[in-house]
């Protein structure tokens, strides 16, 4: 623990306690641990179990934010897009987008101007420039759509990003406690006393820290009311975004960005090889953020947009999966949810006297800017921890990401594990990067991976996910650590749950 020079402060268990295990909370924990701070992170459910695993799976500048004149946010996001593509080539990749031109919605000059800005607001290191395109006879779009534009953004496995940030923080000494809810926090004698409850065992314990970070996303305001017994300095607007997954609408590798009559856009993204991911909606939300699901109106909305554009017509019976998340946006009094800012604010509170134990709160944000948000958050703590290290995350790869390229790494894996089927090899490379050696090393055949559960899932991977990635349920494994829930049968899921139960009962360290 760093000496912060507070002569009358009690010794604390931790320098920083972070409440919230989404992308911002785990990002802050990683950044702080890497600067020499002693960190504990708690999350009431699974890591990335809420908003951070319910995104459109994109790292992007936000082309549509240019219409709102939010040039600062777009510039920040575009710079981060390039950094993230470079630092996490296993779970992120460049993705080309096609935008069909519909002149009655947006004139060509507006789109060209927007794409020019998009290309030039930040230096491109990985992504290619935009250009106009013609849709030929084999286009999956309806025949009246003759031309459009193509530009670059990026794709991310959002839930795995959160887990890798947590793994990185743990490797640097942070304590990571999923399924642990903060039920009370109060200042006392210059420090915070934080009461935590294990959601599985019911065990309650108290830990002390010098700084408390509220990174609870949709719960940022309620944490003030229910845990800290204080009023929130900002209001947030909860906006629900929903997605559907349907059989692949086209065979090409590009994604599509579709304009709609209401001014919104909908993405159609290649997903898990044989599917298309369609989203998102923007609906104001005032319910329980832990219990959120797609509505019939949202399903009809997304289907109407894709059916207005694609030759292949899709019905609700063809939806194989849907998911919804609640985004905590800054409440800037805009009328439409789609117009609310996706930027963030950081609020540092040191009490009325100006010298109490700090409370840092995160309001808003988007997944693309998690790293600079985290960096800025830890920078805010320098007054409390003057001896902490300098910024470091911009050029450091995430766990598993120290590879030249995904193709080069796949070739290395094939050379080391020639017995691996190509489907497994590709999934391991894109999900784990070099981390997959931790459950593949020493194996000479598929039999060495233990019991086959279904599709590409074997017992050895499940054991790894339990022991090193905090997985505890089949849902953790099938929908956040992977998307194998799209590929396993109910019978295979039952086998997985039996194996999980056995592993959890053994409680033997994986390493």
TrEMBL record:
<dbReference type="InterPro" id="IPR006076">
    <property type="entry name" value="FAD-dep_OxRdtase"/>
</dbReference>
<dbReference type="GO" id="GO:0004368">
    <property type="term" value="F:glycerol-3-phosphate dehydrogenase (quinone) activity"/>
</dbReference>
<keyword id="KW-0274">FAD</keyword>
<dbReference type="InterPro" id="IPR000447">
    <property type="entry name" value="G3P_DH_FAD-dep"/>
</dbReference>
<keyword id="KW-0285">Flavoprotein</keyword>
<feature type="domain" description="FAD dependent oxidoreductase">
    <location>
        <begin position="15"/>
        <end position="333"/>
    </location>
</feature>
<dbReference type="InterPro" id="IPR036188">
    <property type="entry name" value="FAD/NAD-bd_sf"/>
</dbReference>
<protein>
    <recommendedName>
        <fullName>Glycerol-3-phosphate dehydrogenase</fullName>
        <ecNumber>1.1.5.3</ecNumber>
    </recommendedName>
</protein>
<keyword id="KW-0560">Oxidoreductase</keyword>
<dbReference type="InterPro" id="IPR038299">
    <property type="entry name" value="DAO_C_sf"/>
</dbReference>
<dbReference type="GO" id="GO:0046168">
    <property type="term" value="P:glycerol-3-phosphate catabolic process"/>
</dbReference>
<dbReference type="InterPro" id="IPR031656">
    <property type="entry name" value="DAO_C"/>
</dbReference>
<dbReference type="Pfam" id="PF01266">
    <property type="entry name" value="DAO"/>
</dbReference>
<dbReference type="GO" id="GO:0009331">
    <property type="term" value="C:glycerol-3-phosphate dehydrogenase (FAD) complex"/>
</dbReference>
<comment type="similarity">
    <text>Belongs to the FAD-dependent glycerol-3-phosphate dehydrogenase family.</text>
</comment>
<dbReference type="Pfam" id="PF16901">
    <property type="entry name" value="DAO_C"/>
</dbReference>
<feature type="domain" description="Alpha-glycerophosphate oxidase C-terminal">
    <location>
        <begin position="393"/>
        <end position="501"/>
    </location>
</feature>
């Amino acid at each position: 623990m760093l000496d912060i020079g507070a002569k009358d402060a009690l010794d604390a268990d931790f320098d920083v306690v972070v409440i919230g295990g989404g992308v911002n909370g785990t990002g802050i924990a990683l950044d702080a641990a890497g600067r020499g701070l002693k960190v504990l992170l708690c999350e009431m459910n699974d890591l990335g179990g809420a908003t951070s695993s319910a995104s459109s799976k994109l790292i992007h500048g936000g082309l549509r934010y240019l219409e709102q004149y939010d040039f600062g946010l777009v510039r920040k996001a575009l710079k981060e897009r390039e950094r993230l593509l470079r630092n996490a080539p296993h779970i992120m990749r460049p993705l080309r987008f096609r935008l069909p031109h519909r002149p009655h919605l947006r004139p060509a000059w507006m789109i060209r101007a927007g794409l020019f800005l998009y290309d030039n607001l930040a230096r491109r290191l990985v992504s290619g420039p935009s250009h106009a395109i013609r849709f030929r006879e084999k286009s999956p779009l309806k025949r009246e759509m003759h031309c459009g534009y193509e530009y670059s953004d990026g794709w991310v496995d959002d839930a795995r990003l959160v887990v890798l940030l947590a793994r990185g923080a743990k490797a640097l000494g942070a304590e990571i406690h999923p399924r642990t809810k903060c039920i009370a926090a109060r200042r006392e004698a210059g420090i915070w006393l934080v009461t935590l409850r294990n959601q599985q065992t019911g065990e309650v314990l108290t830990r002390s820290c010098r700084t408390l970070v509220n990174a609870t996303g949709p719960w940022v305001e309620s944490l003030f009311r229910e845990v800290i017994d204080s009023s929130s300095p900002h209001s947030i607007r909860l906006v629900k975004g929903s997605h559907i997954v349907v059989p692949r609408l086209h065979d090409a590798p590009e994604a599509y960005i579709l304009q709609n009559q209401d001014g919104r856009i909908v993405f159609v993204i290649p997903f898990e090889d044989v599917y298309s991911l369609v989203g998102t909606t923007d609906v104001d939300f005032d319910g329980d953020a832990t219990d959120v699901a797609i509505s019939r109106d949202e399903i009809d909305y997304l289907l109407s947009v894709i059916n207005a554009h694609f030759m292949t017509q899709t019905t609700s019976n063809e939806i194989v999966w849907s998911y919804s998340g609640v985004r905590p946006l800054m409440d800037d009094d805009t009328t439409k949810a789609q117009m609310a800012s996706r930027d963030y604010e950081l609020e540092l509170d040191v009490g009325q006297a100006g010298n109490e134990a700090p409370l840092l709160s995160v309001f808003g944000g988007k997944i693309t800017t998690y790293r600079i948000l985290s960096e800025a958050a830890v920078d805010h703590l320098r007054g409390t921890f003057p001896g902490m290290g300098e910024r470091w995350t911009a050029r450091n790869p995430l766990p598993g990401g120290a590879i030249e390229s995904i193709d080069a790494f796949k070739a290395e894996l094939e050379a080391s594990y020639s017995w691996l089927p190509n489907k497994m090899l590709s999934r391991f490379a894109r999900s784990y990067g070099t981390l997959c050696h931790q459950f593949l090393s020493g194996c000479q055949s598929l039999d060495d991976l233990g019991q086959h559960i279904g599709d590409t899932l074997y017992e050895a991977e499940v054991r790894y996910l339990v022991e090193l990635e905090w997985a505890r349920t089949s849902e953790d494994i099938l929908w956040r650590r992977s998307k194998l829930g799209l590929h396993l049968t109910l019978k295979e899921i039952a086998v997985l749950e039996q194996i999980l139960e056995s592993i959890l009962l053994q409680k033997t360290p994986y390493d």
